[in-house]
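In response to the reviewer comment on reproducibility (Comment 2.3), we provide here a single inverse folding case reported in full, input and output, so that an independent group could reproduce the run without further information from us. The structure tokens appear first.
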């Protein structure tokens, strides 16, 4: 009886948070923004413009050592995606919010989504990437985690995932990212230092020494 009470409480909490973000706080003018965030990996602006520029910058700074980062990042994303999609989703097989009669009266579903709902692959992949990137670029870790959080939140705002889906996906991604950084990336740390001309601290040290 107690376990059933806890379960019902968690289900109601899940629906309540979904309704808050997807219905009560819904703004149709922001739908294109959340669609862009959730489909960033498909955006031509990102794939053709931003991503090549960032990659070129990293390669320019670290030369061939950047390959280590890309390998660790690719493994983390692939592993998180496989665990979520091939493993947990197939076992749980949870219907998405749009397929739930309890949400049909107020759900604002924007865009498309396929397959089971739990957990969110978007959340798993983005947080796995955030952990690995934060390990290599610690000063920018807040940017990486903020972006991963925005991607996870977009799935709820668009009505294609429950909050518990993105929470579980985030946990999967963080665990996979931690595993990759502790067992793989630490053996593949980018050892080449950035060019001194790009770091204000190195310039400051040279001026002090002079």
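Designed residues, in position order:
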């Amino acid at each position: 009886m107690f376990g059933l009470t806890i379960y019902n409480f968690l289900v109601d909490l899940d629906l309540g948070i979904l309704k808050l973000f997807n219905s009560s706080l819904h703004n149709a003018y922001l739908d294109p923004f959340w669609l862009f965030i959730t489909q960033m990996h498909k955006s031509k602006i990102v794939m053709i413009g931003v991503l090549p520029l960032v990659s070129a910058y990293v390669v320019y700074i670290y030369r061939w050592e950047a390959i280590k980062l890309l390998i660790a990042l690719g493994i983390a994303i692939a592993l998180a995606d496989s665990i979520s999609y091939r493993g947990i989703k197939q076992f749980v097989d949870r219907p998405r919010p749009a397929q739930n009669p309890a949400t049909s009266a107020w759900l604002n579903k924007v865009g498309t989504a396929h397959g089971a709902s739990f957990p969110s692959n978007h959340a798993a992949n983005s947080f796995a990437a955030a952990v690995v990137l934060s390990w290599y670029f610690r000063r920018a870790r807040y940017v990486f985690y903020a972006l991963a959080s925005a991607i996870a939140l977009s799935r709820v705002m668009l009505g294609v995932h429950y909050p518990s889906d993105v929470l579980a996906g985030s946990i999967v991604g963080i665990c996979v990212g931690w595993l990759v950084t502790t067992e793989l990336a630490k053996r593949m740390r980018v050892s080449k230092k950035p060019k001194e001309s790009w770091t204000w601290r190195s310039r400051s040290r040279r001026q002090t020494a002079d």
